[in-house]
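Protocol step 4 of 6: structure prediction from sequence.
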Amino acid sequence: MGKTMIQKIFENHSGQEAKVGDIIDIEIDVRVARDFGGANVVKNLEEHSLSVDDPEKTFFTFDCNPGGSDQKYAANQHTCRIFARKNNIKVFDINSGIGTHLVIDDGIAKPGGTIVSTDSHANILGAIGAFGQGMGDKDISHAFAHGKVWFKVPPSIKINLIGKPSEVSSPKDVVLKMLQDLGANGLLGYAAEIYGDYIDNLSLDGRITIASMTTEMGGLIVLFPNDNVKADSDANYEKTIEIDIQGLEPMVARPGHPEDTINVSEISGTKIDSGFIGSCTNGRMEDMRAVAEILKGRKIAPGRVLKIVPSTDKIWKKCLEEGLINIFKEAGVLVGSAGCAGCAAGQIGQTGPGEVAVSSGNRNFVGKQGKGDIYLASPETVAASLVSGFITTKDKIPGEPEGVAIPKISKRESKPKQKVEAPLKVKGQAWVIKKDNIDTDMIYHNRYLTITDINEMGQYTFDNLDGYKDFAKKAKPGDIIITAKNFGAGSSRQQAVDCFKSLGISAIIAESFGSIYERNAINNAMPILVSEDLINKVNDGDEISVDFTTGELIDKTQGETYKVKPFSKSQLEIYTRGGLL
């Protein structure tokens, strides 16, 4: 039986056969920590007296908050700089740009290689046929110290794109169509390979756009075949999916859900307040040129704000050389320094309460970019919409823009946490949350990412999840959460696990977990278990107990016994010793 791309990469970096489902140690070619996770990595290494395995393969990238405008970000960055000086580690500092783009453009990451980062969109590396994985700080610390980390060999899916999109569509519209067909968890637990005439003729910038939104489909990575890495002709795929993009029109994702996509024409005319162009998905040179073509000779609609942030400093300088910065400024655009921008709380791109924005970013989770409503679209659609004052496409820009809307203001409340330790068998009150795809911004919002003290984290748990904003006030030590599919989708933030430990939650049982979240929980000894349809058997408030080693769950309130999947050998080993490190 032939090998898929992911199997070939894993075998080349482990020295052993990569059978689907096996857990194997993988050598990591490039190990990266960003500014929000880097300080925790340093803390982990120093507290455990661990040295750096290979400084030449190890990097810090300050892309979340390039200006260091937040005091804690600035402190975290300085912590990383000092550690880097001591250990001869290269720092891509605040003037450099997005780390995943830098390792591609500077040739640090190569086709067939492996990279891990505290960036949940490290799977961008699939654009060059490399394996990239976003991870929490425990995993990255282990990679820094030992040069390798464990992976479960995933099954592979083959995606065939059929046809060619319309002339007014872009790679962003194609990936939004993929999200429409696959949903938020359609690639959950899978590595995918993508094929088709459209892919064969797609530029690197376009491939990066598609690869960067793998996370939003729940996938580990979408790999683009190339001359260096190809699957065997008889490789085994769990399934093959065909997605029709023939004549595809520009698309947009409605607020709150990247997978909730429709044609732009269905909501054309929706008034907007602001726009953002950039992020690891659409901050490339092709994006900048396409936007400049639309903005040249035009002005941003009165009362609106458009923010443009190139992904790297090299692209920023290229925009300057080609006169694009002047076009942007003449149109009334705010141009920011290279970096993540809209996805990170510390840089430009955030929205106020009631603000309606259209963004070229990869996520529009509730609260992700502030309190506003975020529509996701291509850079061309964003630019066309901002000169129009409403959502539209580049071929339908009117002569006169629309008027503006007025946002409303709301406040957030929070309360400190409590903490307990958990044994191999626990009991407590059930919190049954019947929601799929609860993402990490709902669990633990990015505005708290600079917090490194676990004792401070519990108070912010679920304060961005509708219906559970008072969870931290009501939860008691020992309580058990039972929920649905893809719990913990989204970011690689460790805090989305640690906040539950801070509160003393004794276990989380879900139908499935986000891939990075699962790793973070296991690595930090937070008990997580998998069980299907338990949310329709156990009632909210029931007194239950669960045995991590046998998987026996007893609902004492109803007098029923159920089975959940017990800890694996690896999970039990990590749990009983108190965590990966």
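Step 5 (inspection) to follow. The two ends are 37 Å apart (CA to CA).
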